[in-house]
Design brief:
Strand order of the largest sheet: 1-2-3
Radius of gyration: 12 Å
Strand content: 35-45%
Order of helices and strands: EEEHH
Helix content: 10-25%
Number of strands: 3
Shape: globular
Distance between the termini: 7 Å
Number of domains: 1
Length: 58
């Protein structure tokens, strides 16, 4: 993998933006959200499927 981190801006319901950071070294996804929403991240799941993440991290 050429990049250690991949940053994905995500728009939730056309009202709020947050950032998902894929750390390819640690095989982790970190969500940075200024509103600290505790609800589900369906928008993130729709943007990046688990298969896509695992293919990126290989």
């Amino acid at each position: 993998m050429q990049h250690d981190m991949i940053k994905l801006p995500i728009n939730a319901n056309n009202t709020h933006w947050y950032l998902a950071v894929v750390n390819t070294k640690k095989c982790e996804v970190q969500v940075l959200d200024s509103l600290c929403w505790n609800s589900g991240r369906d928008d993130l799941a729709n943007t990046v499927s688990y298969n896509t993440i695992f293919n990126i991290l290989r």
